[in-house]
Input
Amino acid sequence: MKRHHFLRLFVLAAATIVGGAIADSAWAREVIKPSSRPLRWELDFEPGDLRLFVDQSDGSTYLYFTYKVTNNTGQDRTWAPSFILYTDTGEIMKSGEGVPGRLNGELIDLLGNEFLEPQFKIIGDLFQGEGMAREGIVVWPIRDITINELKLFVAGVSGETARTVHPVTKAPIILRKTMQRNYILRGNALARGSKPAELVSTTWVMR
Output
């Protein structure tokens, strides 16, 4: 890894407490693994690219990610996804936070896809069948453009959960099957322009 401290930062960040519950933990990832085949419903999630965007109005930089989700589970579902991005510069970001409202519209116009929906709008019913599939876009502000490695966690795709307790506090925790996508941005991020980040691997974790 170009930054040897990335793993250490990631593990420390994994211990962050959100809303009184542990959002992620190294011990849980090691002890509790998702099933090799779906145990509960699972949506068909088709990821698009992760790309950099520079806002010409003020020079601010962002990463954006597109996707398509289809419900073939045999039952209508609610689509309320979570997209968390970890970077090797120590940033942990929820999609949409610190993103100007106008930016989603500008990116949708740039991509020329009228079916894309921003996260605040796409949350809601996901009816069954290919004809009811929905396409979304999520955006994160990037404050440190020297990033090279990224981890994207996508929650809400699977209904699989696991109950456990924290080994120290003994507080009950519910872990959810989450998609993890690992990326590399080789070289200078700005010089790459809108060239997609390189996908290194995709896996499932409980977090």
User: Anything to note?
Assistant: Residues 101-111 form the longest helix (11 residues). Residues 15 and 176 are 16 Å apart (CA to CA).
